[in-house]
Design goal:
This protein has 482 residues and is α/β, with parallel strands linked by helices. The chain has 20 helices and 19 strands. The chain has 3 domains: 133 residues, Nucleic acid-binding proteins (OB fold (Dihydrolipoamide Acetyltransferase, E2P), Beta Barrel), CATH 2.40.50.140; 173 residues, P-loop containing nucleotide triphosphate hydrolases (Rossmann fold); 57 residues, no CATH class.
Length: 482
Amino acid sequence: MTFEDFVKKELVFIKNYVKDAPHSLFVAFKREFEGLSEDKVRDKQFELFELYLNSIDKNSLMTELSLEGRASLILKPSSFRIYSDGVVVITTRGGAKLVGEIELFGRNKREILNNIADWMYVEVTHSEQIIEEYGKDACLIELVDPLKGYTNEDDAKRILDEYDLTPLEILIAGLGIKPTNETLRLFAPRILSLFSYQDRPIHVMQFTNVETGKTEFGTRLEFIFSWTFYSEFPSVAELIYDGRTGSAGAVFTSQGIVIDEMDKVSKSKFLESYQPLNTGLENGLWRRGVSSHGRRLEVYRRVPFLVFGNCNQGNDVVDTRLYDNTRQISKEIIESAISRTRDDDRMVNVYSFLDRFAICDVYSKYVPITEYLITNDHGAIGVLPDSIYRGLVAVIQQRIPTEYVESSEECKGRKRRHAEAVYNVMRVLLDTDLDVDIVRQVVAGNRDFGALFDSVSIESKTQTKDEEIEYEDIGFDLEAIQ
């Protein structure tokens, strides 16, 4: 079946009525709108957004607590700490502290840790005792309802088998984006980071032009896969471990990390995270030194990283193409950012950091993603349900082969391992064999990522961004995150 059939039969169209809310929030909770009129859908979206806003805006939460004495939130913890007396302290993205008994989060150790590291619905109340012990930004947890998403592998297998589309095209269309030649090239490196190879994550760095959907992609991963998206380079306390409070950071509360604005990173922040990031990215071992609590953190956890930045906002190094190698261009972009922030005199080896990434991609073509959205006559964006998207990634992961890739003069050691991962995953995503020499050149940075498509004459079977398709308005046929 064709792309048009896929759009009409598989996508659900969800219109965003709340200007400041991420579209991914309403995709995740789409069953909440089932059978409702347009006015009721709008009201329900505002209600959901208020719950989400309480988790990312501390003032919103504290205002509701001061007026009502209680509040509700939808959140994924930013960090957490568990005390030996059974008290759990969760920190929201907005900086509020939610304090509750450990029994609220599960029945055993595995269930508790899994629930704390995922989305949840929480009800809290004002408590003078909690404020006295944990500070004015703290409140008492009364109810926790885990929101772990269902994975629908059955429909995922059916979709992969039924349609005349590559797995990569299906995954891109599932995000609400027309899989044209431009979007295939833009999104393929991003999609690559959703997969692992021989139990190792595939880290990707990508510098693009503006308006290419980096923020929306990162936010969608937060809701689908419980990743954490940072709109700027985070502190080491946010990312790994806060030595002042003893709280575990995002690498322990997330299934993956997306970091934007790498082209604007400050030298002090980069140096602070440099050594623990290098170790963690390479072998999954996250270390922090002795804290004010007398603890040393050393925990093993493999987490994929997807790092974004802009390359076409007056960056002379990229615009004038002083270098042909994408790894060298990436290095120059980061070093240019660091040199603009004269906040530290220490030296830093950017190349060692980049060596942890399987792909360092630079794509300067202007691809305004809003012109490639799959929409209906009412302006609603068509996407795959989160449960099916999770199923697609799970099924594709199972189909990845493990063919060994030999080293070459330009692709040795760690890069050879990266080339093997990229080669095997991209073969499945493109549903075709690849020239292994070109894969090695792409990983080494000597060829553009688009060379993978050129080598096998891959061309999207869908329409261009300007061609219109009449989409059936299937309304809000929605499915809850649970």
